[in-house]
Structures are given as structure tokens and as C-alpha cells.
Amino acid sequence: MKVPYRDEAADAAYAFGWTVVRKTPERAARLAFTAIADRTWHRYGAGVRQLERNLCRVLGKDAVDDEVRVLSKKVMRSYLRYWLEVFRLPEYDRERIVGKMRVTGEKKIFANLDAGRGVILALPHMGNYEHAGAWLVHQGYPFTTVAERLKPESLFDRFVEFREGLGMEVLAHKGASAYGRMARRLREGRPVCLVVDRDLTDSGVDVEFFGATARMPAVSAALAIQTGAALIPVTLWYEGEYWAARVHEEIPVPAEGARQEKIRAMTQELAGVFEEGIAAHPEDWHMLQKVWLDDLPGSPAEAPR
């Protein structure tokens, strides 16, 4: 079956990133990606408009104003920095990956893993979670994660190859087999890393998030309940030339309630931790897609404009 032109173009763009951009002098590449970020922001397309609606939620505003516009420009620069680093990350050596990472609370991860207990690291789309994953691998803890099925298949294969090259085990996002393998890894006392701040499927859990209803994946809480692994949120951001992360306290499994009630309670607590991290570093939350149910077509409520 013929691959649609748009899919072919996307595949070619990513191939360009992992070949030409990867080898371009860093200063020139950074200037180019900053220019791309600014041009995208000025074009004010659907992604930037949705980003600003999301930022209105975070800042508690009813409408986009100058503060939101300034912040959205910072987000776009942060987002394009993420993509630049994704393309160049295979060139970074251990000294750079570990030496320029500023982490607080990481002993909670290591203590559980060293005791033979699996750990679920739950993250939002903040900072550079690919780099954070490479940092964890360099600490001696290779982990399992999932990747969304992309079109064309060759693009999905590129992302899998990229992440496996950093030392990650990568599973296709959908299917019971991925869930089962993650559960096995956790029972083996290994880490699993999941980005879980957005899920608009019927299997997601509705939570209160910045004062409105959003839907987040149930998988991290479900795995913790099923395997006994520690569910630990992590938030990420940039500090100048450094990467920064905060490892938050473990979210415990409630002592009482049915399984679904426990999942809902744990996912709500996770949303609260993400709120805290995003509010502290909104310029590094790369969310250009719909998160809140009010933003979906046909919703009776209107999102901020």
C-alpha cells in the first residue's frame, strides 16, 4: 500500500534530524532551532493556539493575554530545544549526560531498585524525558518504556532504534502484550518509565487538573496495584544549559476501596503532583494538544480563548 505523502515527508524530516542535524555544529543547530521555534510561534497555527489555551488553564486565566503570549513563545523554544537534543542525544557522551543533569530525590528510585522492588516512573511532557532516560541508563538502571505506533512504520522504527540505542527496552504502545511485559519487568525489580499526562481514550481516568476535568492514563496506577512496584512521579525542566528533574514522593496504593477506586485515587494524586511541577515550570511543559475534556468537539463547556 502506498504511504501518504505527508507520512513520507515526516519520515524524511526525522531521518534528516538523526543524520544531518545530529552532525551539525551545535551552536549553528541551536540558532536554527530557535529560529524555527520563533517562526512557528509567529505563524500562530493550531498547535500554538491549543498551547495557549492550555497555558490559560495553568495560569488561571479566562483568555489569552500578553503574559500567555510571552510564555507560549518560551514554551516553543523549549519544545524545539527538546527536538534538537533528541536528534543530537546519540552524540552525547556519559560525562555530558550525567554531568549536566541536576536531580533531587533520586535516592528514592535507587533504594527501591537496589532492594529488588520495581519502580514506575511517571512523567508529564516536560523538559527532556529522553535525556532523563539516558541518565537513568548511565546510572546502571536500564528500563522499559512504550512508544506510540507512528505512520509510516519506518518512522516508528526510527524512534525505536533511537531509544534502544540509548539502552531502553521499547514496546509498542497498544496491546495487552505491552502491559504484560511491563508487569513482568516490574516483578523482576526493574524500572518502567511512562509519560502519562494525557489520555483521551475511553480507558483513561477523569481527574481534576488545574480546576477542570482532564483524562489521564490508568496504566501507571494499575501496574503499581498489580505488581507492588513503587509509583514515583518525576517532573523535568531546563536550567540554562543544564537538565533538571525532581523525583517526588511515592504514591502509595490506598488501603481500602475496589481496584478501580484505587486507580482513580492514585491517578488523581499523580495529577496533583504534575500540577505542582507544571505550575513551577510552565515554560517547559510541551503540551500543544488537547488535555481537558471541555476542549473536545461537542463539549457543552467552552475552553478559554
Give the overall pLDDT as a whole number.
90
Give the ordered list of helices and strands.
HHHHHEHEHEHEHEEEHEEH
Point out poorly predicted stretches: 1-5, 300-305
Alpha-beta classification: alpha/beta
Instruction: Please tally the helical runs, counting DSSP H or I stretches of 4 or more residues.
Output: 11
With strands numbered from the N-terminus, the spatial order across the biggest sheet is: 1-9-8-2-5
Radius of gyration from CA coordinates: 19 Å
Distance between the termini: 41 Å
* DSSP strand count: 9
The helicity comes to 40-55%
Q: Main beta sheet, described?
A: 5 strands, mixed
Report the oligomer: single chain
Shape: globular
Q: Please report which band the strand proportion falls in: under 5%, 5-15%, 15-25%, 25-35%, 35-45% or over 45%.
A: 15-25%
Structural summary, described in words:
The protein is 50% helix and 16% strand. The protein has 305 residues and is an alpha/beta fold. The strands form three sheets. A five-stranded mixed sheet has the order 1-9-8-2-5, sandwiched between helices. β3, α8 and β4 (169-172) form a beta-alpha-beta unit. The protein is globular.
Topology:
Blueprint: H1 5-23, H2 26-43, H3 46-59, H4 66-88, H5 94-99, E1 101-104, H6 107-114, E2 119-123, H7 129-138, E3 144-147, H8 153-165, E4 169-172, H9 176-187, E5 191-195, E6 205-209, E7 212-216, H10 219-227, E8 230-239, E9 242-247, H11 259-280
Parallel strand pairs: 1-9, 2-5, 2-8, 3-4
Antiparallel strand pairs: 6-7, 8-9
